[in-house]
Amino acid sequence: xxxxxxxxxxxxxxxxxxxxxxxxxxxxxxxxxxxxxxxxxxxxxxxxxxxxxxxxxxxxxxxxxxxxxxxxxxxxxxxxxxxxxxxxxxxxxxxxxxxxxxxxxxxxxxxxxxxxxxxxxxxxxxxxxxxxxxxxxxxxxxxxxxxxxxxxxxxxxxxxxxxxxxxxxxxxxxxxxxxxxxxxxxxxxxxxxxxxxxxxxxxxxxxxxx
Length: 210
Known about the structure:
Layout: H1 6-9, E1 14-16, H2 21-29, E2 35-36, H3 52-71, E3 79-89, E4 92-94, H4 100-110, E5 114-125, E6 137-149, H5 154-162, E7 183-187, H6 190-194, H7 198-209
Parallel strand pairs: 1-2, 1-3
Antiparallel strand pairs: 3-4, 3-5, 5-6, 6-7
Helix pairs in contact: 4-5
């Protein structure tokens, strides 16, 4: 989808406001040229006051605005991309497991069930300002993908935990690696489960730069 835009994007300063290696890899693969300036926002919003969808949108907004404000007056980017992703079982947001016991409990809860992965994305265009006193033009959206896990035996769960992969993954698994073997199916954008809703993002970029 971005190929017709590449000549226009070539001269733009694009910033990814995230240190996620998975988001960087997704955007690298589609040929987007950008620099990485991770946000320093602490991500300390009270999850109990948000739905998972609203939590990712609000966290993404704070993360992206922090970078935008930091870069104000410093060769301001044409586009700043920020995102936040959570894994949710019902209304419960699943963090990275704190230990192997927590990982086992988390994966056991996901076993045989359908859960959702939500990503909030915020695009800020300081040089495409709207009217009024708004310092930035902010575009915000979110994407949800349903993930169906197979029935996992304790032996399978323990073997996966022994790989250490679950310990730094929200929800206790990574679909792009060994965790993909636990997934029976998905409904929605695969890349959203990895951490960035690629198709929805490309549609927004077409709207901005066409």
